[in-house]
């Protein structure tokens, strides 16, 4: 799994958050959302699940759950009509109240991740389980950050620049993780040396540069949050 898969997970979180909090208002925008192929890390998980479990059954169950049960769980917690509200027509106080309600609902929806963890765990080795636990444990903290000050950061997700940038995250993450050496895939985090740490720092700098170019710098707050949590698993500073 390692940092490239973690990057994909981070990107998926941001894309889903943006899509959920800024649902399309017209058909042309809907087409953009429909081009999302789903979580990019799923493609990498198939072989890993097959190698670990011996067949595709676990992976197929996971994919089916993420495709059907996870959205249903989310929608059971979150008022979709509120998510579709055109916030440009709201007064500032009305907008704050709306995002406070949305934040409360999204926080409740974190419970939907529990069965995903259970279905994913059989596909992972011991080190990958640690990474998964760290990433999932960071989600509530990320949501709390987004919802501070009546969802001030979450409100940014409704801005055109953020919605556009969210669609660029998967290729952006692919670009910034593609230079990580294959040797890092099998090396435990605890054995990282200055060389591996340098590669991680380069990945971080690449992502920071691309986010700045994208014009949605608020995403860096989330990236740094996940990045620091994962970095804590290594000797890197």
TrEMBL record:
<dbReference type="InterPro" id="IPR009832">
    <property type="entry name" value="DUF1397"/>
</dbReference>
<dbReference type="Pfam" id="PF07165">
    <property type="entry name" value="DUF1397"/>
</dbReference>
<feature type="signal peptide">
    <location>
        <begin position="1"/>
        <end position="22"/>
    </location>
</feature>
<keyword id="KW-0732">Signal</keyword>
<protein>
    <submittedName>
        <fullName>Uncharacterized protein</fullName>
    </submittedName>
</protein>
């Amino acid at each position: 799994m390692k940092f490239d898969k973690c990057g994909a997970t981070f990107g998926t979180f941001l894309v889903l958050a943006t899509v959920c909090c800024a649902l399309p208002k017209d058909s042309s925008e809907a087409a953009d959302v429909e081009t999302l192929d789903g979580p990019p890390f799923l493609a990498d998980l198939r072989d890993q699940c097959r190698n670990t479990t011996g067949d595709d059954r676990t992976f197929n169950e996971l994919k089916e759950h993420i495709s059907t049960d996870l959205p249903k769980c989310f929608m059971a917690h979150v008022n979709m009509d509120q998510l579709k509200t055109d916030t440009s027509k709201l007064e500032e106080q009305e907008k704050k109240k709306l995002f406070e309600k949305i934040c409360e609902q999204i926080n409740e929806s974190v419970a939907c991740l529990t069965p995903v963890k259970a279905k994913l765990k059989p596909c992972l080795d011991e080190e990958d389980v640690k990474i998964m636990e760290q990433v999932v444990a960071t989600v509530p903290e990320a949501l709390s950050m987004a919802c501070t000050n009546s969802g001030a950061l979450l409100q940014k997700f409704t801005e055109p620049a953020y919605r556009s940038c969210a669609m660029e995250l998967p290729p952006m993450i692919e670009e910034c993780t593609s230079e990580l050496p294959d040797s890092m895939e099998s090396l435990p985090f605890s054995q990282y040396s200055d060389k591996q740490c340098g590669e991680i720092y380069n990945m971080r700098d690449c992502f920071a540069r691309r986010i700045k170019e994208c014009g949605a710098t608020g995403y860096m707050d989330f990236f740094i949050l996940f990045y620091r949590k994962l970095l804590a698993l290594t000797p890197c500073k």
